[in-house]
Amino acid sequence: MTSDSQSSLTSFSSTSSSSFASDSASTSSSSPSSPLPSSVTISSIGTALPDSPNDEPFPVNLLYISRAWYHAALPYVYRRPRLYPKNYFSFVNTLSSSDILGSYVHILDLRFIIQSGKNSYTSRLLRRCSKHLEEFYAPQTSFGYAPLVSVRQCGRLRVLDLSLVSETVDLRELFLAIRNLQKLTVLHFPRSSVFCVDFEDDLWPPNLSQLGLAGGISDDFLSQTRFPHTIKTLSMAHCPFVKTDSVRSLCHRLGPSLTSLRVLFPLPALSYNSLDATLKFCPSLRKLVVSTDYITHRLLSAENVSNPHPLEMLDLDCSGMLGQSRKIQADDIALAVLEGRLPKLRIVRASIKLGWTKDDEEVSELIEVLSEREGGGLWIA
């Protein structure tokens, strides 16, 4: 919802009841001047619109048709508000002054609210929207203790993304917040969380399928906690305390169920070849995103890929630090495909920091091999 839309909606909500009544009479199904056929409903319009953050929001002008249309359209207008610094305070004030508007919000995305809010605002919004809130994306700032406590009230929450949070978060409070979120399927930890020492086994929601680990996760926590085998997608970054053995142990335990794995710099305690056995530990993996800081060419060797592996996408990131560009080469990937170890690999993405160019013979060969697959290719960015 843009700032213009928000201001229009606020002024519209104060329109007199008499004008609504006259509008409703003129837009009844029997009236020949009805602006839309009676078969067209708000519900059919709302369900026909895509629910992607990149798509156009619900057409706010529909609120002006009549009183009936106004009340019927409100749930769609507020379902996923488009929030930015310019309209954020108006949105907070509007929800604070209403007992019902917050119940219409299903997706609350505050990732674009940078240095524009307060902890009290975030906490208030979570409480106001708790009845039907399904997805929450936290802002970089303005997410401290009070908002974390308010998360506990969001019993319908399916997505809790704290990956952008730069403020200090006590992981013990986070575990308390998610303990009763039985519908939670996606969880991303904050990158500036406090070092976690004490933990219990019964931490996780029963249906968790996507987990992003970051921040003060301890090495013992990673190696000893019983992670649920419902997890299909795992990501790790900004974990300064985790070491090679604990990461390998986690991949070994969750590997059979993982279909997507993302391990990115910085993980300063990992060794240069920590993830070479990833494909051996994760026989069902379809997508692998990894920094070359933690792998070598042995990632794709016969000793680690003894049987045909179902990997479809390989994304090679790179920190750009000295010596990282030569650890794995394009011909290592091409040979793994040609020798049948990666029969389904179609897409390879490589960081420009690796120094690959299409003029290199090895890179050209990889491009040719991947181009033979439908939708396949090499992308360098």
From TrEMBL:
This is F-box domain-containing protein. It comes from Lipomyces starkeyi NRRL Y-11557. It comes from the Eukaryota. InterPro entries: LRR_dom_sf. Residues 1-38 are annotated as: Disordered.
